[in-house]
Fold this protein.
Amino acid sequence: MHSIGRLGAPWTPETARNEARRLLGIVSTGVDTCAQALASEGFATAIDRYLERKRTSLKPTSFRETERYLRDYSAPLHTLSLAHIDRRKIAALLGDIETNSGATTRNRARSALSAMFAWCISEGLLETSPVTGTAKASENGGRERVLSTDELRELWRGLGDGTFADIIRLLLLTGARRNEIGLLRWGEVDLARKQIVLPAERVKNGREHTLPLSAQALVILQRQPRRNSTEFVFNDRGFQDWDRAKQRLDERLPIASWRLHDLRRSCATQLGELGILPHVIEQALNHVSGAKGGVAGIYNRSKMIDAVREGLQRWADHIEKITT
């Protein structure tokens, strides 16, 4: 059943009867007016309904990521109705995302859109998904990017001040993943022991990770303001504005295209160049492979905190040397 509207201006019994006669006339020609009304729903409104439905079924981190891809990356579609979003518009959007943020981000945005449009079909809002037929991007090309000494120097000197600048510095100094730092909570920071302790649910491999802090990284955390309104170190809900912040940074940097994950790879590579042993590097990055994988990983319970701390301090001193 399709509702014309609620009683009250502009709907009086007379205007409602006239509208009903008009719709009946359209239906008699074979046009589904209910389908038309559903398809005219705005994309932004559909996002609100979809996210509300998914709020309880997705893990908090997954929900935040889904929301980011639909609200931030898909913003060019927000003014359109579902009926006016076709494969060409989706393909153009994904192309822009890949150009600005890389293949991985494009593919994750595509997955979020695909899931949402599948929900639209199940709700009777659409008959087909405009994502169908769009291509996934190859993610192999950028996985070996390591910033050179000159690029590290340009990056560090071009960061300036502010929250994002300090997050980038910490990502480079610690080799941590972006959400491990961007969503860092004060309860995970032990300034007295000069370390971060990430609980199992906050790391990729599901194992609690103790990350020693160099003197330089410790200074960055010590200067962050404490806010009673939040448990997060950066911003009230943790740092979310990754792409816009990085785009603004890239506009100032005279270096080739790079991604945030390249900081982690660069840290690991440079630790090796500084003579840090592979198993210490794996511990620093919380990898479970190579020297830490298999049987060795079962029997080697040592956290090697001192060795990791020494390695990260040598890396921080190296960064300070090449940038000052």
Observations:
- The first strand starts at residue 189 and ends at 190.
- Residues 1-6, 33-39, 290-302 have pLDDT under 50 and may be disordered.
